[in-house]
Design brief:
about 70 residues; 4-stranded mixed beta sheet; about 25% strand; globular
């Protein structure tokens, strides 16, 4: 899977100051969570109990990762 992005000039760049959180669809939430924790140093945090589907929430470096 891949997305081809055109190179844009800096005039059209999105002026991001920070990134709050991102969500990723994973083949295996368990394996992906293990990678983010053991390799990248993210910490597993509690998900709302109202979510009735498989997933994991992790946090570090000021970024939240939602694995689905």
């Amino acid at each position: 899977m891949g997305i081809l992005l055109e190179q844009n000039s800096s005039d059209s760049a999105l002026p991001l100051l920070s990134l709050n959180h991102v969500s990723y669809l994973c083949k295996s939430v368990e394996e992906s969570s293990k990678f983010y924790q053991e390799v990248l140093g993210f910490v597993l945090i509690r998900r709302p109990s109202s979510l009735k589907f498989e997933g994991a929430w992790l946090f570090n470096y000021g970024i939240g990762i939602h694995l689905l």
